[in-house]
Design brief:
This protein is mostly helical and about 200 residues long. It has 2 domains: about 50 residues, Orthogonal Bundle (Arc Repressor Mutant, subunit A); about 140 residues, Orthogonal Bundle (Tetracycline Repressor, domain 2), CATH 1.10.357. Helix 1 packs across helix 2, helix 1 packs across helix 7 and helix 9 packs antiparallel against helix 11.
């Protein structure tokens, strides 16, 4: 059993190397098997049904926010002052690793050119994070912590407010020049975001 777990970890590590060097389309099952020092590429299919499933698993192992939203039940009733900073931190910490930054640049470039890559990445990451945030916002409205609103928009708005900070790490050095830290950015974003969605008290 331990050997199977080690082999799986070995494949994931090799797949991450290949995806971060060559992108989704450039990395092949054959090249991943070679990097993992496997005797046959067929061994990969013992653990993962196809390259897309392997890619999703690599993303989950390297993107902390995906691990956070994997089991949302424990988060839905917690207050937004606790959950939203956690989501923000996990999302932004993804881009602290150079290899992950490189993979993000490659995948974004590929997704712009190839609709099939955009779909794979969208389903593996964007749909899951936005799906969690929509469910979370809806639950907070039910609990009376946030005023009724279109949760599709608030989920997008929250992620959208984090994008410049992530973009500064991956693409645009100019964004980093003002020295704003992740914690400072998250604190400001959560404050602005929640003030806009607080229940307004009736006057008179």
């Amino acid at each position: 059993m331990a050997e199977e777990s080690d082999r799986r970890a070995q494949i994931l590590e090799a797949a991450f190397e290949e995806f971060s060097e060559k992108g989704f389309k450039g990395a092949t099952i054959k090249s991943i098997a070679r990097t993992a020092s496997l005797q046959s590429p067929a061994l990969i299919y013992w653990y993962f049904p196809d390259k897309e499933a392997l890619f999703r698993e690599v993303l989950e192992s390297r993107i902390p926010v995906l691990r956070t939203v994997r089991d949302p039940a424990g988060l839905l009733d917690l207050p937004p002052e606790e959950v939203l900073p956690t989501i923000g931190r996990r999302y932004l910490s993804t881009f602290d690793n150079r290899a992950t930054q490189r993979m993000a640049r490659l995948i974004v470039g590929e997704a712009m050119r190839r609709p099939e890559v955009a779909e794979v990445f969208g389903n593996a990451v964007i749909k899951r994070v936005l799906g969690f945030l929509k469910s979370y916002m809806a639950r907070q409205v039910e609990l009376g912590r946030l005023r009724p609103h279109d949760v599709r928009a608030s989920a997008r708005a929250f992620i959208g407010m984090l994008l410049p900070q992530a973009g500064g790490k991956v693409f645009f050095a100019a964004i980093r020049e003002d020295g704003l830290t992740d914690e400072e950015h998250i604190e400001a974003v959560v404050g602005i975001f929640l003030r806009g969605l607080e229940e307004k008290e009736e006057i008179g």
